[in-house]
């Protein structure tokens, strides 16, 4: 089979690609080609795999040609992140909404020429939920909680969910949307996401660097490890339409955790000296965005697919450390770990 991952050069996309290549099959079919699209090339280890083809540049510029190409499945992960979308409205609309519409229309044109509908998994976000005066905002959002996003990023993700649902209803694609919890711990440098600090307050102290937390230690939010996130995306792809239970998006499992509990876990795993490298300095822009996000989430539909949240945040920290130790530059990423 031939697959594509948009955003395949990013952290989650690259990890998904490695997992698929290691599995060798998806939904019972052998993976023969994996196309990774992104604005930057994928990591060298992926480029070295003969099954991988990289396409570099904005998805919007590539989408028109896709109706001439046969893909058995697509994981659509490419996206501008939350903080970027809030700071640059046009960037968010172009990167998130316009690119998704162009991709869906390319797949629609392909289907209308006689091809079978392509299966597509869209990575939506917990950011589709938010408080609104007209709708009660629960402490824990469920699959059937009414989405009322309070950021441009969340609005764009929600619009794409509805587009995916309607293109599926019309038979143009076989679409499934999965709402990702905040993925942590992400390696590398901080990005433009308002949620970036959820990784930074773990990653930087382990590297021996001071980290600034821009929100209160009482802030609660659902998070997921990279491994559980990738497992969720694959399970959503492999589910039958009946197992997926409708066309609306589902929540992937997450661990509902407070910032203070994250730091407790960091101390449990790495010691008090590592935790002491985190200091609190409120950033009103970030804090105001995070204040409009859910404090917790449930995932009943994903649970019925056999998916589970991480057991503890300490397990997530240990996973990050194990991942780093497998890399050539482990001495740098973990130089703050005694």
Percentage of helical residues?
40-55%
- Return the average pLDDT rounded to an integer: 94
H and E string: EHEEEHEHEHHEHEEHEEHHEEHHEHHHH
| C-alpha geometry | globular
Report strand %. 15-25%
Which structural class do the helices and strands define?
A: alpha/beta
Main sheet strand line-up: 5-4-1-6-7-8-12
Distance between the termini: 46 Å
Describe the biggest sheet?
A: 7 strands, parallel
Low-pLDDT stretches = none
Describe this structure in words.
The chain has 338 residues and is of the alpha/beta class. 42% of the residues lie in helices and 17% in strands. The strands form four sheets. A seven-stranded parallel beta sheet has the order 5-4-1-6-7-8-12, with helices on both faces. Helix 6 links the parallel strand 7 (118-125) and strand 8. It is globular, with a radius of gyration of 19 Å. The model has no long low-confidence stretch (mean pLDDT 94).
Entry keywords:
single chain; 338 residues; alpha/beta; 7-stranded parallel sheet; 3-stranded mixed sheet; 15 helices; 42% helix
Helix and strand arrangement:
Blueprint: E1 2-6, H1 11-23, E2 25-26, E3 29-30, E4 33-38, H2 44-47, E5 52-56, H3 59-62, E6 73-76, H4 82-87, H5 89-112, E7 118-125, H6 152-169, E8 173-180, E9 182-183, H7 197-206, E10 211-213, E11 220-224, H8 226-238, H9 241-244, E12 250-251, E13 255-258, H10 259-270, H11 272-275, E14 278-280, H12 284-290, H13 300-304, H14 313-325, H15 330-333
Parallel strand pairs: 1-4, 1-6, 4-5, 6-7, 7-8, 8-12, 9-11, 10-14
Antiparallel strand pairs: 2-3, 11-13
Helix pairs in contact: 1-8, 5-6, 7-10, 10-14
């Amino acid at each position: 089979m031939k697959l594509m991952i948009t955003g395949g050069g990013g952290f989650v996309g690259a990890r998904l690609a490695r997992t698929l290549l290691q599995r060798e099959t998806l939904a019972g079919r052998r993976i023969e080609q994996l196309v990774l699209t992104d604005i930057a090339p994928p990591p060298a280890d992926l480029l070295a795999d003969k099954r991988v083809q990289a396409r570099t540049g904005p998805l919007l510029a590539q989408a028109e040609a896709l109706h001439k190409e046969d893909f058995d499945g697509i994981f659509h992960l490419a996206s501008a992140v939350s903080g970027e979308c809030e700071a640059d409205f046009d960037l968010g609309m172009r990167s998130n909404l316009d690119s998704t519409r162009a991709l869906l229309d390319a797949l629609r044109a392909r289907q209308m020429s006689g091809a079978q509908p392509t299966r597509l998994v869209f990575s939506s976000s917990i950011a589709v939920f938010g408080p609104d005066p007209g709708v009660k905002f629960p402490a824990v959002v469920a699959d059937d909680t009414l989405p009322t996003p309070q950021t441009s990023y969340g609005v764009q993700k929600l619009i794409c969910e509805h587009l995916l649902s309607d293109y599926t209803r019309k038979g143009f694609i076989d679409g499934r949307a999965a709402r990702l919890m905040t993925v942590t711990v992400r390696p590398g440098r901080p990005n433009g996401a308002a949620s970036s600090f959820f990784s930074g307050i773990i990653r930087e102290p382990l590297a021996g660097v001071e980290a600034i937390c821009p929100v209160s230690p009482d802030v609660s939010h659902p998070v997921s490890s990279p491994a559980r996130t990738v497992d969720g995306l694959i399970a959503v792809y492999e589910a039958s339409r009946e197992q997926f239970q409708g066309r609306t998006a589902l929540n992937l499992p997450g661990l509902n955790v407070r910032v203070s509990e994250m730091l407790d876990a960091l101390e449990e795993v790495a010691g008090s000296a590592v935790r002491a490298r985190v200091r609190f300095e409120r950033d009103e822009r970030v804090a105001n965005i995070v204040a409009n996000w859910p404090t917790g989430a449930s995932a009943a539909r994903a649970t019925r697919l056999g998916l589970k949240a991480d057991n503890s945040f300490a397990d997530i920290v240990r996973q990050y450390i194990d991942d780093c130790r497998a890399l050539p530059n482990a001495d740098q990423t973990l130089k703050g770990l005694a």
